[in-house]
Amino acid sequence: MDGNSFGKFFRITTFGESHGKCVGVVVDGCPAGLALKEEDIQKELDKRRPGQSGISTPRKESDLVQILSGVFNGYTTGAPICALVWNKDVDSSFYTRIRFTPRPGHADYTAFVKYGGFSDYRGGGRFSGRITVSFVIAGAIAKKLLRKVLGVEILAYTVQIGDIKAKDMSIEEIKGQIENNLVRCGDPEAAKKMVELIEKVKEEGDSVGGIIECIALNVPPGLGEPVFDTVEGELAKAIFAVPGVKGVEFGAGFKAAVMRGSEHNDQFYVAEDGNIKTFNNNSGGILGGITNGEPLVLRVAIKPTATIGKPQKTVDLKTKKTVEILGKGRHDPCIVPRAVPVIESVIAFALTDLAIRMGLINQVIKLKDG
Amino acid sequence: MDGNSFGKFFRITTFGESHGKCVGVVVDGCPAGLALKEEDIQKELDKRRPGQSGISTPRKESDLVQILSGVFNGYTTGAPICALVWNKDVDSSFYTRIRFTPRPGHADYTAFVKYGGFSDYRGGGRFSGRITVSFVIAGAIAKKLLRKVLGVEILAYTVQIGDIKAKDMSIEEIKGQIENNLVRCGDPEAAKKMVELIEKVKEEGDSVGGIIECIALNVPPGLGEPVFDTVEGELAKAIFAVPGVKGVEFGAGFKAAVMRGSEHNDQFYVAEDGNIKTFNNNSGGILGGITNGEPLVLRVAIKPTATIGKPQKTVDLKTKKTVEILGKGRHDPCIVPRAVPVIESVIAFALTDLAIRMGLINQVIKLKDG
Amino acid sequence: MDGNSFGKFFRITTFGESHGKCVGVVVDGCPAGLALKEEDIQKELDKRRPGQSGISTPRKESDLVQILSGVFNGYTTGAPICALVWNKDVDSSFYTRIRFTPRPGHADYTAFVKYGGFSDYRGGGRFSGRITVSFVIAGAIAKKLLRKVLGVEILAYTVQIGDIKAKDMSIEEIKGQIENNLVRCGDPEAAKKMVELIEKVKEEGDSVGGIIECIALNVPPGLGEPVFDTVEGELAKAIFAVPGVKGVEFGAGFKAAVMRGSEHNDQFYVAEDGNIKTFNNNSGGILGGITNGEPLVLRVAIKPTATIGKPQKTVDLKTKKTVEILGKGRHDPCIVPRAVPVIESVIAFALTDLAIRMGLINQVIKLKDG
Amino acid sequence: MDGNSFGKFFRITTFGESHGKCVGVVVDGCPAGLALKEEDIQKELDKRRPGQSGISTPRKESDLVQILSGVFNGYTTGAPICALVWNKDVDSSFYTRIRFTPRPGHADYTAFVKYGGFSDYRGGGRFSGRITVSFVIAGAIAKKLLRKVLGVEILAYTVQIGDIKAKDMSIEEIKGQIENNLVRCGDPEAAKKMVELIEKVKEEGDSVGGIIECIALNVPPGLGEPVFDTVEGELAKAIFAVPGVKGVEFGAGFKAAVMRGSEHNDQFYVAEDGNIKTFNNNSGGILGGITNGEPLVLRVAIKPTATIGKPQKTVDLKTKKTVEILGKGRHDPCIVPRAVPVIESVIAFALTDLAIRMGLINQVIKLKDG
């Protein structure tokens, strides 16, 4: 029980279900004095909305955010910000029919076991990807805070879909491309192939996974608390809250296993601006769990969408017999592109919490324009 | 500041430095009635001790644990258990000499920045691998609790050192081999090559990384709290507290990115004992952040030891000039084998916390033999 | 910043402002399987509603609760329960006029200082007594849980208004009287005098305070966690969240100061039912921070309503000149009667948290009727 | 289980038992750069030491503190500070004899029930007043931080023992007197009568309670987090951790119940130094849970010592028969004077936590002398 909150200082508490009345979040610990409008949040929410193309689910979710508390006269007040998106009425009859036949790859079975059959099973209920709306709302507030107060910029993008990999590129090259293609990939040529792969997979009634990379620029050195509340630990915990994530790595990540120390160690030098920098960034901007001022770099593995158009074996929980189940067909064959803004969001609120803990963001923000 | 604690219910708080008086831990939330002796902990501590072979540092650390509180008449009382290992006096003069020239790959620079030059720099201070003594102490208690009350068994082992990979083996095959070789690998042939690689790397004054796999058997279904306190999130956070970890993946992990949904989804069936099982275990025993009763499987990427015998560039923090630094030579060229019991330990205390949160372990344990 | 949440396991997070869109709460950690309807909550909310008599403010607040999440098919699901009451549109112009002249006895000044002038000042904003709607919503759920699963009954009532004190009565005598008079006092004769006092004070444009006593019956022994999360500590923290509370005492309370140990100590005996009981209950049912099975007894001092009809001195925060301010006249001259259900509520959710921590309430409730 | 920690940022975790090896504390979250020696702590510990006079227990406890971690070269490092006092060997045979006959007024019975008979019963074990050594250690560090960084001064003193009350005095008058008499009372004449009362009570084999007042001077306005983490809520929680406390009140406290609003409200004015002040301080320096810059004032009711020299009725937990028990005679007949430095300590660490949360104390302290 419990577990729906994240953060120590910038503490977000999520609520809502896929086919319930709404999905929303309470953000407790946002400083007073930040200029905040619903449009600031809507802009980010629109990025995770489905129905943007043929490769995404055609469900119409307008997903208009409504701020219920914590903002007054256009500024945050220091009080908790509750914001939510009302769900549209949808037909849940399919889920009632399959209530006792858990879908492979989904949380149906574990939710049933954990909550003794009382969990809301409609559309995956509390385990639906739809709950990431809450993450994006909180992330939008966090992003604005980080950008305004510290100049931090967070950029996520797709680097792999199935076996199609984006080429190595600088973050400057990537930045301009992300929103230019349907898969949010920095490499236009790879993006084209990724789209083709997704379309092919969709025709086959199947799905495919991928890898998202995320870079945070201008992160001040000193962020992260040893021993347990490290940058990696806090970010990883937030990232694993996103449905479908199977792995997280920082800097060289799993490749570090095959490297020599002489190759992996990032040696130091003094940059022209007098700042201490490293020649490489195999550490991903983190040493001893604390940021070192280099770009923070991480990658996230996303599994293929669990819902597929092919028959799969499962068990009828009432009869304890093996049966076949067929997925409901209107889901994304690849959730990676829509997960991109979600990953940015969770990193944003996790970093904000660490920044406040470190004392970098005060309880009252005093900017010319909030 | 803060961040040295982990867990909500089975809450461990670590303290101590590499060259300070001691390293230790307070375990708050251990149920009353568990039979506990110093030997239970010593057994686990001995596994992480260096000096066990030519491939490990020859430093003599006897590391005898002392329980200071929370145990009475051979049983835990429900009060916080403080236990520690006293450090031996060691020569810290090397560290005083390099105080202002941070070692690449170490936390020297970030610790200096974060703590304004006040951090204990001797032997890495609070950022030394030595602090994992605290993890192993807490993990030993957690392991005993999990085994006694729930029958859970946690097994970690090396699957890769540099580019040498262990072959695919069943956990039954692996189990008997782990303590039979110096690298704690289930595959004896790969183990031999791994040892050779480490010796070669050592001769070169270099170091090498690797990958540890960990399996938890008999984990009851239903463990893990959505949305943020998932099994993956909690375990990843604990694992990233171990110095040198660069990545964590569950089940198919990063390979999930190249899989189709039809391949990745674990389909269900009813086993002969009437339990619901899955044909494969690409999920690593977790769906929706909650255990499903299958073995919990994860892998951890460990970077090459930061200390190497080769000269490296760094910056003198006082003069802001680039200088060369040479590591102190008595460190493990590969920390992977010694990290194995540490990974087991952090997984043990993270799982224990989730088991208590779920109500599976009561506040008073009533076993025949405690 | 933050601080709007209470509880470790049964964790409530409050939001909303007096003149904002709504006041509400997210309850995270409520077990699955509890039958819950909006009526269960509405019943409790109706008790704190003003306008019930001539001694209370005539403001019409219908205060209809709406459950937004966490309940499905009439039962809690284990997911967070968000519930709120929409505010009516009210005229806030008075508060805009007095924005820079903080009202004595209110939080206007401290809120202005803490939040740099960004706090919502309308109707006291986040510091209004109206936020106790959130407490009553969470308390209603907690009360039902405690009653259904453990048989715990929580009863608060007025024992003093100004200098009018209720006579000593047994809880059985008190119980039947509480809802029979406007001041929620167990002693009908004292109640009559209390009403007269409040009416007199009201005519004078003044206000008056009082004392509420609260008893929890059938509390199982063993509740409460040493050293800091004691029953007294947890309850006191929750109680001090109620606006206007100036003191909390348990059992003999401040009278213990003048007692001898031989008089204060509650000696033990074996009751006819075989249970261990105490002859007296000076401890208020708590020893060492842990319940002993006797009724839990506490008293709460409530200050006179800060808003009065008389002119008071304050400072203009812009001009730094002393000025006179006159309260807006439609407030309760005594908030004690309306605070009674609020005190019951905070005690209910604090006790529920302790009961879940002790393992007395499972994550899935299995009662015939939920 | 758990509950032995306090604070969100300046987080203290206590451990140890009365007749165990030691009593100690880990302070996590103390900023780096504070000059700290064992003498800073010893000075405070000496105040709570018994054996200072004929009215206190003659037990010899030298109670020498030892800092085990977190301090290097005379300054805090930002790492957790573990410090403890080793217990002397004492004879526990009395406690073994009365193991199954719980002493009235002590936690013997509730500890037995809660921990299933596994708790350390020697000298009250974890429930002994001796655990306040941990509070005083943490409090000494907190006091130094508050004084050095914010100029906050915390003063506790006895205002009542039994029915002997100190006269009303200004804090300036009180300050010079506190350490001049055995009962730590600001009023020398009352102090004399209090000592006589304690001696009389002692002769009778009885005990007596009292009231401690505490004032914190120079507390900056804005401290305290609404809604639950109010100054009153945080302080009350910390105070109720001190064994024997039965009540806590702020400002006018329980007297507020009999006051009119026009009398209780503290009206504002501008002081000569330009600061906004109040004419009275019935609020005790707190409005809406937030400090207003006036002195923070609170009072604590302490019950008479539970151990007395007279026979009392209790129950044999094995035979379930009523029996008589006689206390062991060497305890303080009045713990109020020794509780005075303990109350100061808990208030110090609770305020420190709030000050760090508000951002008033940075993670690195930069003072000329630390």
3D architecture notes:
The structure is a homotetramer of 370-residue chains. Chain A has 370 residues and is α+β, with helices and mostly antiparallel strands. Chain A has a single domain, classed as Chorismate synthase AroC (Chorismate synthase, AroC fold), CATH 3.60.150.10. Chain A is 26% helix and 22% strand. In chain A, the strands form 6 sheets. A 5-stranded antiparallel β-sheet of chain A has the order 1-2-3-7-4, covered by helices on one side. A 5-stranded antiparallel β-sheet of chain A has the order 9-8-10-16-11. In chain A, helix 7 (231-239) runs antiparallel to helix 9 (336-357). Chain A is globular. The first copy, chain A, starts with a strand and ends in a 13-residue tail after the last helix. Chains C and D meet through strand 1, helix 3, helix 7, strand 11 and helix 8 of C and strand 1, helix 3, helix 7, strand 11 and helix 8 of D. Strand 11 of chain C pairs antiparallel with strand 11 (245-250) of chain D.
